[in-house]
Every structure is written in structure tokens, then in C-alpha cells.
Design goal:
Immunoglobulin-like; single chain; 5-stranded mixed β-sheet; about 425 residues; alpha/beta; Membrane-bound Lytic Murein Transglycosylase D, Chain A
């Protein structure tokens, strides 16, 4: 899994020179010569994209980030002996997916030509059908069972360390435990994810022990839940997300918060470890884990903005000891400020705790739909075209608009969710079958 993340990180770095904003797919052109097919996607601005192949049936998938389809676009591409059909669908409210159904297996490569004032941005995809592919033998005895995606949830503080205390005496350790339990319950209701808590009651767990729990579970993600406090400001509110920084905290607020969160009473130092060797091993893998943590954090921030105030609109970095696992992507979520009496009241409310948990889960889910860990049930479902998106109904949503956004028939949407009519409610959970 680490090698796969390093490859993905290298690709992201190679694209870093491109800048992109909200884009529109204006047209798709196709040319066929001998056993090669060239697809050209015309866009009105630079984009971030991801292309991968799937088998059984053979197809190529093009994910266009922050891209929508031109309203006047009409599908005019004809099929041929290599391309069976081309399908388009929304991966989320702002992303677009193009699926190219192939008649047989092929190799591909692609590149992006940045646009100018007089020329569209062009994404060029070359598909080569000249190669012959042999089918590897199937050894049924060596089949490895598919696993769930593992999420370790860490309720901050606990026991003799209550964390911050609100103006009305509410302990941070208790409200974040309630949110964490909600999040774990909702994760465990899915068919392909499983949650583990570092503490399930008001008990003390040392910071390094929390980190080690995630490593022992071979977690795909570690999420630490907190509720920040500012003693001299009772009006500040809003969520923030922090990841580890190799260079220390990136602002004074992050330094202050990291210092407070690292003061976990009774923590112990690493034993039986060669400090020099541990440092080298950490440097080799931690860079990729930090990059992954940032991507997950950005996805969660988008969802938290739907249920409340976001104080820091970008993922922050700090020297948090609890996030220093070298091989597990880790992030710390400050849900809001318990030092604000209004926010303290909300944190004690079960409905608000549920909304927070659902937003965090949605953000995690959205990330793993694009980056499913190898060998998981979700990765297998995506490979077989059976991707399911968990969606929470927002204010103003209609069933027909959701169906149109995700390019799914409204009858199929009703069937998946046991809906007889068209009435949906804010906060209702829907299962959306994608790319059918």
C-alpha cells in the first residue's frame, strides 16, 4: 500500500506545475487509425485528472476534478470495433467521470496541453490495441479474502486528562467521546468499512499508545476528535483540521494547540527502539502519509462546512505527537470551540453530534471512493462497476436533481432506497449507485 501511495504522490507532484479552477468539459473528439484510438477532451481551463483501467469488462475511467459538463453538450461519438460506448456521470457535485467501454484490453497513456486565450485546454488520451495480453492462471486455493477499510477513531483526552473545560463545566473528553461513538456506529453500518476506538469510555490512554493502536490494527486512516478552547475569547467558533508537519507548526495558533494537545499526562517514551533507525524509517514513509492525510482532511472539511462553521478553510499543520505514525495517514479534527458557550451547548446536543459524525464519515467515504485501498471490498466493488455512494440529503435537494447530478435513473435511485414517491427529507441517507 505504501508503494502505491508513493506512486500516486509522484504523479501529483508531476502535475503540480498546472493550475486549475472550476472547469467545463465542452467536447470529446475521437480519431481511429490502425489499432490506435485517440480521444481529445476539450476543456475551458486547466484541470487535475486521474485515469485508470478496469477489467471484466474492459474499460478506461477518466476522473476530472472540479469539472462539469457543458449544458449544450450532445453525445455525437460513434462506436467502432475498439470502443463500445462512452458514458459520462457525476462523481460528486463538482466532479465528472468519463467511462470508455473497450471491446478488449488495451494499453493507454495521456497528457494535458494547457490552454491559452485562443485555444482550449486539451486532455489527450491515446489507447493502443496492438498489444496481446495473456490471461494469467487463476489459483483458487490462493484467493485472499477481501477486507474492510479500517478507520481508527481517537476520542481526545480522557480519564485524568479532561482536556478543555467549557464555561458551563462541560468536559472536552466526554463530548468528543460521544461524537466518536456516533462516528464509529455509522462507519460500522456500512458494508465495507470498520471502525475501532482507541478508548470506548472515559479512560486515560497515552498519546503514543493511541498511535500504536492504529499501527497494530494496520489502519487505513487514524482520526483524532477534539474540541478546542481559547480562554481569552468566548466568541470564536468553527471546525479546523490538522495534520502532521515535518517542519513544525505553520502558525502561532497551531504551535499553541500542538503544545496543549501534546501535554498528555503520564505519556511514556518509546522503548527498545534505535532512535536513529526510527528516524530514517519515519522520513521514508511519513511524507506520503502526510500528503494522503491532507487529501482526506480537505474532503472532510468540505462536508463539515455543510453542517456548521469552518474556522480554518485549509488543512493546517502542526507538531502533534498523536499524528506521528509513519505509515498510517493521520489527522486531528477540532470540531469547534468548547470555550464558546453557544458551541459548548451544541457539542452536548445529540443531534449536532450526529450531524458532525455524518459529515466526517461522508468526507472519509468520498476520499476512499477515489482512492480505495488495494484488497478491500470497496476496491473490488469499484473494479466490478458496483460503486455505491453514501449521500446525505441537503436543504434544497430534490430526488430528480440528485438523479440528474449523478447520472442515475430515478427509478433505480428509488429502488436502492425503498422510496415509493419523490419525497425526501433533509438529513436523510441515500445510497446512490454510480456509473451504471
Amino acid at each position: 500500500m505504501l508503494i502505491k501511495r508513493i506512486i500516486l504522490f509522484s504523479i501529483l507532484c508531476s502535475l503540480a506545475s498546472l493550475t486549475w479552477s472550476a472547469a467545463t468539459l465542452k467536447n470529446i473528439r475521437m480519431a481511429v487509425q490502425d489499432k490506435q484510438v485517440r480521444l481529445v477532451l476539450d476543456l475551458d481551463t486547466n484541470i487535475n485528472t486521474r485515469v485508470f483501467s478496469l477489467d471484466n469488462p474492459n474499460r478506461l475511467v477518466i476522473d476530472l476534478e472540479n469539472t462539469k459538463l457543458l449544458n449544450s453538450y450532445r453525445h455525437t461519438l460513434s462506436t467502432n470495433k475498439f470502443i463500445d460506448k462512452i458514458r459520462l456521470g457525476g462523481e460528486s457535485n463538482k466532479n465528472l467521470r468519463v467511462v470508455v467501454d473497450l471491446t478488449r484490453k488495451a494499453e493507454f497513456k495521456y497528457f494535458i496541453i494547457p490552454g491559452s486565450r485562443t485555444q482550449n485546454t486539451r486532455m489527450v488520451l491515446d489507447i493502443d490495441f496492438n498489444q496481446s495480453f495473456s490471461q494469467p492462471p487463476v489459483n483458487k486455493l490462493s484467493t485472499v479474502p477481501l477486507r474492510d477499510i479500517k478507520i481508527v477513531i481517537d476520542p481526545g483526552h480522557g480519564g485524568k486528562d479532561p482536556g478543555a473545560i467549557g464555561p458551563n463545566g462541560t468536559w472536552e473528553s466526554l463530548v468528543v467521546l460521544a461524537v466518536s461513538r456516533q462516528l464509529a456506529n455509522q462507519i460500522n453500518k456500512t458494508s465495507d468499512m470498520r471502525a475501532f476506538l482507541t478508548r470506548s469510555d472515559d479512560s486515560f490512554v497515552a498519546l503514543r499508545d493511541r498511535m500504536e493502536i492504529a499501527r497494530e490494527q494496520k489502519a487505513d486512516l487514524f482520526v483524532s476528535i477534539h474540541a478546542d478552547a481559547l480562554d481569552n475569547n468566548t466568541r470564536v467558533k468553527g471546525a479546523s483540521i490538522y495534520i502532521l508537519s515535518n517542519k513544525g507548526a505553520n502558525d502561532e495558533a497551531s504551535k499553541r494547540l500542538a503544545k496543549r494537545e501534546n501535554e498528555n499526562l503520564g505519556d511514556i517514551s518509546l522503548s527498545n527502539k534505535n532512535d536513529s533507525l526510527a528516524s530514517v524509517l519515519m522520513d521514508l514513509s511519513q511524507g506520503v502519509s502526510i500528503e494522503t492525510s491532507k487529501e482526506v482532511g480537505e474532503s472532510i472539511l468540505k462536508e463539515l462546512a455543510r453542517v456548521g462553521t469552518v474556522r480554518k478553510k485549509k488543512v493546517q499543520q502542526g507538531s502533534f505527537l498523536v499524528l506521528k505514525s509513519p505509515d498510517v495517514p493521520s489527522l486531528l479534527i477540532e470540531t469547534t470551540y468548547i470555550s464558546n458557550p453557544n458551541e459548548e451547548k451544541k457539542l452536548k446536543d445529540k443531534k449536532f453530534q450526529t450531524r458532525l459524525a455524518k459529515a466526517i464519515l461522508q468526507g472519509i467515504r468520498n476520499y476512499f471512493l477515489v482512492n480505495p485501498p488495494e484488497g478491500t471490498k470497496l476496491a473490488n466493488n469499484l473494479k466490478n462497476g458496483a460503486s455505491i455512494l453514501d449521500y446525505t440529503v441537503q436543504r434544497g435537494d430534490t430526488l430528480s436533481e440528485i438523479a440528474e447530478t449523478y447520472n442515475v435513473k430515478i427509478t433505480l435511485l428509488r429502488s436502492y432506497n425503498n422510496i415509493s414517491g419523490s419525497t425526501i427529507k433533509v438529513g436523510q441517507a441515500l445510497r446512490i449507485p454510480l456509473y451504471r
